[in-house]
Amino acid sequence: MSSLDLRIEDILETAVYELDTVISQEHADQIVELLRTKDKRKLDDREIRSRLALWYKERTLRNRRINFRKLDFDYTIECAAKLETVTLEEKRSIRRVDLPYCNQEIPTAPHEDLWAKAPLKDFREEEISWVRSGSHRVEDCHKCHRTGEVRCKRCNGSGDEEDRCMRCHGSGRIDKIGSTRGSETRTCTRCRGRGTTTSRCNRCRGTGDVTCPTCDGERILFTYEEIVAKTDLQSEQKLVSNLEHLNVKWLPPSSLIKLDHSSFPTPEITPETTSIEVGKQYQLRFFDVHQIKFWHKEEREILLLDKEVYPIDGSYLRDWRSIIYLGVGLISLVVVLYLLINYLNS
Ligand SMILES: [Zn+2]
Ligand SMILES: [Zn+2]
Ligand SMILES: [Zn+2]
Fold this sequence. Notes:
Layout: H1 3-19, H2 25-37, H3 45-58, E1 72-100, E2 127-131, E3 137-140, E4 149-151, E5 160-164, E6 173-175, E7 185-187, E8 196-200, E9 209-211, E10 220-240, E11 258-263, E12 275-295, E13 301-305, E14 308-311, H4 319-345
Helix pairs in contact: 1-2
Bound molecules: zinc ion (3 copies).
One zinc ion is lined by residues 152, 154-155, 159, 201, 203-204, 208.
């Protein structure tokens, strides 16, 4: 068994452990076999060099051009796995529906428990509701206390509506005839200085009450409950590899092998339960990871992991030089400013 084979098995085992799931030995063997025999998406020399050159070009603090065509390199292609766990949760609640009573028939059915209907096992977010059987009742309207009317909201039951005075625009004062604007004023006669005028409320026609919108004036309600079921998805991603520094953003979109697995444990439900974890869905994807080491003629090394490059020997890319240049520039500027201020003050 080669070291690479071992690595694939390690990755699979770690992934399955992380997923907290069980896959059969047969299934695991199949996956390992597929990964071993798969034609990996190898990069050719030209592609490797152009990737590195492209990456280097995008760096802002580079200090000189490197001719990547002239570098030597070592290339290995490895395997990593990305795990995605999606948890399906369902919340249930009761919604009361009130309708005016108009001699509707009251269905007779046994009372339905909140979780009598099986939870939704679709891995998507949705909200559905249905009538709770055995919940129908006829009762006095609780909004108007069986009067059929409620207080008018527009006039707050007064029957009058206050409007801004049109003549004085709400100020209560108007200019005296012949005076310049605002210099001499007198009390507005239309609103008597109040700034507002009173008129009969349009909504309740001055009575202060309106027909109860809940029972539509019927005084009695036909009421029932609805069960509202809302599903929620939580997803978590993890990466499994034997490579240091490996980050999910470098992974190419193409997947090698995809393993889908769902589990639905039976939750314990009590009359107080409003939310349960319905199930978990697992996805396991394997990826090619390209690891490339470059050598410069001065024996300095760069490591390329997929789209990212790591200088093994920090001196090679010499970013620190740019920082020194910047530092010296800033210090010079401060000195010049200091001299200038001294000169102006003297
Ligand atoms: Zn007025
Ligand atoms: Zn009113
Ligand atoms: Zn009512």
